Amino acid sequence: MLKKLTGLALVGAIVLSVPVAAFAEDTQGAATAVPTSKSTKPVKQLLLDKAQIFGISTEGKTSEQIKAELKALSAAKHTEQLNKAAAKLGISTDGKTAEQLKADIEAAVQVKLKEKATKLGVSADGKTNKELRAALKAAALTKLQEQAAKLGVTTDGKTSKEIRTELQAAALAKLQEKATKAGIATEGKTAKELHAALKASKEGKRAEAVKKKPLN
To answer: d(Cα 148, Cα 169) in Å, to the nearest integer?
Structure first.
């Protein structure tokens, strides 16, 4: 559950992310910046550094030209992120602006969050996506703690990730114990492989029992 919430959080982060263009806009009027040396102004250097990070050539270009290229690249990357987020949510991107996509993605994320809230018994009334994610995260943590208590795993001071890791280890230990009793080798096998082996063993025993059952 927490993994799914993390995925939705990432999609939400894409929607709310501020494009790199903001950097270029903040540097408006760089020509008036106070120089620290005869040849390099602070903001111009920031522009050069940013351009280098994004692989933009700066040779012979003015600050305005570099800012324009950074802004265009930022807009393109942001649109690409929005398209990817939309694809994950099954949202059509045809003919839509970035703002329209953002609105559609936010609405779709909210629907999914509300579905998860219903499953976990969390009230979604009046909550923003951010508030709802926080409430779902807390509810999912409570579920993990309940599962941990049943398996005798302590949860005090542990994060969700730590609890989940210990739960997986405890569940694997129980599977290994069952497999050993069934005469199944457990060395190097994952939980999924042990589940499959136990299922096959159970079905095999059932088939044997049917064969031995006398015909009327």
So the answer is: 11
Alpha carbon of 29 to those of 56, 70, 73, 152: distances in Å? 21, 16, 20, 63
Tell me the CA end-to-end span of the chain in Å, nearest whole number: 51
Distance of alpha carbon 68 from alpha carbon 79, whole angstroms: 17
The CA distance from 131 to 122, in Å, is 11
**What digits encode the pLDDT tens for the residues 185-212?**
999 999 899 989 999 988 888 888 887 7
Residues 6 or more apart from 50 whose CB is under 8 A from it?
Answer: 20, 23, 70
Alpha helices in the chain, H assignment, sequence order: 2-16, 21-26, 42-53, 63-88, 98-120, 129-150, 160-181, 191-212
| Six-digit token string for 33 | 């910046």
